[in-house]
Amino acid sequence: MESRNPVFGRSEEFARGGYATFDTRTPTADDLQGMYDSPAARSRNTDRMTIDDVVIRTASLFGVLLVAAVAVFALLKPGDPALMMVTFGGAIVGLVLSLVISFSKKIRPALMLTYAAAEGLFVGGISLIFETVYPGIVIQAVLGTLGAFGAMLALYKFNVVRATPKFTRTLMIAGAGYLVFGLINLVVSLVTGSSAYNSPIGWAIAAVGVVLASFFLILDFDFVEQGIRNGLPQQYAWTAAFGLVVTLVWVYIEILRLLAILRGDD
């Protein structure tokens, strides 16, 4: 099954059986004895991607993102014209860089770190705007994002939800539909000043966005697992980390929107 995550979708390395899937011939008795006697391999010995590599690089990207977001909180104030410029500027730069990284045939850690910084400006700015209107909402959204990540990881780890071809197709169709709806709603809101999220069913629409974004984490976990199984070079840990960060930012924004809608009814 090929990846449908935009980050992994053009990469055969993350497909089952891709890149350097290990030799599947039946080992002989001598082969088994040799493997038994050999010391445990480490990523520095094999130069292959491990889960530790993915975790370290994911933490690196999130570290840059958090520093940028905290800087926005510390240096800018609500109502400051620079806040809107930083927020939307970060969003646009982050979008452009994400497309460049996703469609590039080379792994570009520097661009990924730059993306994390730009996305941090956007996340920090939008969080400050929401926090001004709904005090305490940011910590709620952060905890909600961590909860969604933990829940999806548990569902995947214990095989409750698997990234089967049917699951992937269904999720991609739903995701595409949600994207089209979002674009239409944006155009309508710019023209009329009214948004579907302000309607009585706004919370339900926002809840669908949270669920969709969370389930995309299942695809991320699956493609990371396949990449490790296929024996990818260590550098691909950057690609895996980037994909996780993209999805987690999406989850956070969707949860932030849902909480704002629910609190708007208080």
From TrEMBL:
Pfam families: BaxI_1
Keyword field: Membrane, Transmembrane, Transmembrane helix
UniProt entry tagged with the keyword Glycoprotein: no
Transmembrane segments: 54-76, 82-103, 110-130, 136-158, 170-191, 203-224, 236-253
Protein name: YccA/Bax inhibitor family protein
Biological source species: Kineosporia succinea
